[in-house]
Specification:
- The chain is an alpha+beta fold.
- It contains 2 helices and 14 strands, in the order αβββββββββαβββββ.
- A hairpin with a 4-residue loop joins β10 (131-134) and β11 (139-142).
């Protein structure tokens, strides 16, 4: 008794549909994109190093790295803006928000070295206590803010353009 061709075709169609669903479920959701790229920059994602290009999607887990002439602007889905300046490394650790429960949201960046400018978006405004920027020396929380941070393993400098930050 050999399976009928129609039965085999149905099985193959079912398997393809299942694989497509799994691939969609496993694909990370973009949380923003690169709005401006000057010079050389890279996104480190899942053990790959990709050259940064304008319009490239940004995902949780991405590490952005700029060269001595690199400058990358990121625009996030909630309207937040981050400028990654030359010779910098920024990790997007978390970027999530629950409109029904603000305490479920969390925005967490880690500036390993260099300089960034951050302007808080709607999610950071709604859950200010759940926004963190970690550096090698301190953790920074925001209070509805436009601020610049320069950090490395020996020093931390901040400038607040509007709003306030808390450094611990």
């Amino acid at each position: 008794n050999c399976p009928k061709p129609a039965m085999i075709a149905h099985f193959i169609l079912f398997a393809l549909c299942l694989l497509t669903s799994v691939a969609r479920a496993a694909a990370p959701t973009p949380i923003g994109e690169t709005a401006l790229v000057i010079g050389v920059g890279y996104v480190h994602r899942a053990q790959a190093q990709l050259p940064v290009a304008r319009g490239m999607s940004i995902q949780v887990g991405d590490m952005l790295e700029t060269s001595a002439n690199g400058h990358v602007h990121l625009r996030f889905v909630d309207g937040a803006f981050v400028s990654v300046r030359p010779n910098s490394r920024l990790l997007i650790e978390s970027y999530q928000f629950d409109p029904q429960r603000h305490d479920n949201g969390a925005i967490k960046f880690r500036l390993e070295q260099g300089v960034i400018r951050s302007i808080t978006g709607r999610w950071g405004e709604a859950a200010r206590e759940r926004f963190r920027l970690n550096t090698p020396l301190a953790a920074i929380g925001v209070r509805g803010t436009d601020f610049v941070v320069q950090a490395n393993t020996e020093q931390l400098r901040t400038t607040v353009n509007t709003g306030a930050i808390v450094v611990t």
